[in-house]
TrEMBL record:
InterPro entries: GlycerAld/Erythrose_P_DH (IPR020831), GlycerAld_3-P_DH_AS (IPR020830), GlycerAld_3-P_DH_cat (IPR020829), GlycerAld_3-P_DH_NAD(P)-bd (IPR020828), NAD(P)-bd_dom_sf (IPR036291). This is Glyceraldehyde 3-phosphate dehydrogenase. Residues 138-299 form the Glyceraldehyde 3-phosphate dehydrogenase NAD(P) binding domain. Belongs to the glyceraldehyde-3-phosphate dehydrogenase family. The keyword Oxidoreductase applies. One of its GO terms (molecular function) is oxidoreductase activity, acting on the aldehyde or oxo group of donors, NAD or NADP as acceptor. Keywords: Oxidoreductase.
Length: 491
């Protein structure tokens, strides 16, 4: 009897050890396995909400070559030689066990997998994975459809799965003209930074709807939350994600809660006290079933807080300064003109603009032990996306450069903050290499400086997509808390 095509094989040679013809055949064999993996990964996702990735590299809706690249990346960074053959064996076991509603990190499961007793080991690891399967979907409304709103829409549409998770139901915008719907759909379809939408988009001008990859999105025109009745569109117990930034306090955002069909609100900007500023991975557990409004802080706060937590836990931070080199944003002028903010009136496309950032102080809202220990400034630069934070830290103990890099590298692979922290040690990377990275921040290990108790870290971050990914995690957690709140209600 032949070997099962998904069976674990220990005798897979590396391409570098093979003659030219054999190396090519080994490549073709891996391509064939990756092609077999695509429908399995897709079916597990669509039917059982199994999200498959390799150390954070998403495999759902990826091509066979992308799957191979994810495995090669894992081999380069991790100690364990992760192979597609092993991953296929894990997928087979997941399929047999009929697991659902799990985040399947093949890299983390296989990092310590033994050659002997492989299948039993995998089954033990899978049994420990938490499940988030729900009996019904959670409606999501995007209030505002700018840079972050459209990226949230793309992620929500791509995460539709079986339909029992987050479900994008509507966007609320101000009408911009007679062809508003066509333009909104076009901006969703095409993006100068993040590329084309992966899928199909159709519009219905009579119903004011956008149909994107089977997700029907109602477009609601309003410039006042008080005018919207979401139940008229079949929306119930929704989470409204406010992307406008018009209201950042409890009273302003509570306008959403007063509308029929709304149960929770998430703000995609720093909020004012007493609102909880959430950096997912750091303090999301502080969200309680009774919390109706939370904020997802800022892109910079999300990028630096996880890294600061790791360093503070390991070495203790006495004080530090955060300097952000930040891509320009829509609140700046393209050419010199009046602006109510200092220096932001000067041309964003032609200047480095020194400005303020509240990210350093905002860190303490998620990480109270750093209260009063950080200062910060920002320099806006003429790039459209991807920023960098430079963390200049004084520690409570001496630090070794290699040791701190290894700590952050290991965290990015198998740590509790692996969804927030990525790590690179390439000498060739530049900002555009991180467009579309779904981590909150990426530590550039080659730039790390350590001397005595002084540490300087350079952290890249896609201030649009990485931040939007963090927002989605907050929304998912809010949905879980909503379900718990319903369970607490008297029968």
């Amino acid at each position: 009897m032949g070997t099962h095509p998904l069976a674990y094989r220990e005798d897979v040679p590396t391409a570098s050890s093979l003659p030219v013809d054999s190396a090519h055949q080994a490549w073709l064999d891996r391509v064939a396995l990756a092609e077999l993996a695509v429908p399995i990964i897709g079916r597990l996702y669509r039917e059982r909400d199994v999200v498959t990735h390799v150390h954070g590299k998403k495999l759902v809706n990826q091509s066979p070559i992308d799957i191979m690249k994810a495995h090669k990346w894992a081999r380069r960074i991790g100690e364990h030689v992760l192979s597609i053959e092993q991953s296929m064996a894990v997928l087979r076991i997941v399929d047999e066990l009929e697991l659902r509603g799990i985040s399947l990190d093949l890299g983390r499961i296989l990092v310590d997998a033994p050659a002997e007793g492989f299948e039993g080991w995998v089954r033990e690891q899978l049994a420990e994975l938490p499940s988030w399967s729900q009996d019904e979907p959670t409606d999501v409304v995007l209030y505002g459809f700018g840079r972050i709103g459209r990226l949230l829409a793309r992620i929500l549409i791509g995460h539709a799965g079986s339909g029992l998770g987050l479900r994008l139901r509507a966007i609320v915008v101000r009408r911009g003209g007679e062809d508003d719907l066509e333009k909104r759909a076009s901006l969703l379809r095409r993006d100068s930074v993040h590329g084309a939408f992966q899928g199909t988009i159709d519009i219905d001008t009579e119903a004011n709807t956008i149909l994107a990859n089977g997700t029907l999105i109602q477009v609601i025109y309003s410039d006042d939350p008080a005018t919207v009745d979401y139940t008229q569109h079949g929306i119930q117990r929704a989470i409204v994600v406010d992307n406008t930034g018009r209201w950042r306090d409890q009273d302003g955002l509570a306008q959403h809660l007063g509308r029929p069909g709304v149960e929770r609100v998430v703000l995609t900007a720093p909020g004012k006290n007493p609102l909880k500023n959430i950096v997912f991975g750091v303090n999301h557990e502080t969200i309680e079933p009774s919390d109706t409004i939370v904020t997802a802080a800022s892109c910079t706060t999300n990028a630096i807080t996880p890294v600061l937590q790791v360093i503070n836990d390991a070495y203790g931070i006495e004080h530090g300064h955060v300097e952000t080199v930040h891509s320009y944003t829509n609140d700046q002028n393209l050419i010199d003109n009046f602006h109510k903010g200092q220096r932001r009136g000067r041309s964003a496309a032609l200047n480095m603009v020194l400005t303020e950032t509240g990210a350093a102080k905002a860190v303490a809202k998620a990480l109270p032990e750093l209260e009063g220990k950080l200062t910060g400034n920002a320099i806006r630069v003429p790039t459209p996306d991807v920023s960098m934070a430079i963390l200049n830290l004084s520690l409570e103990q001496d630090v070794d450069r290699d040791a701190v890099n290894e700590l952050l590298r290991r965290t990015s692979l198998t740590g509790e903050l692996r969804a927030q922290i990525d790590f690179t040690d390439s000498a060739e990377v530049v900002s555009t290499d991180f467009v579309g990275n779904n981590r909150a921040g990426i530590v550039d290990g080659l730039a790390t400086i350590a001397s005595g108790r002084h540490l300087v870290l350079y952290v890249w971050y896609d201030n649009e997509y990485g931040y939007s990914s963090q927002v989605i995690r907050v929304i998912e957690h809010m949905a879980d808390q909503m379900a718990k709140a319903r369970q607490l209600l008297p029968a």
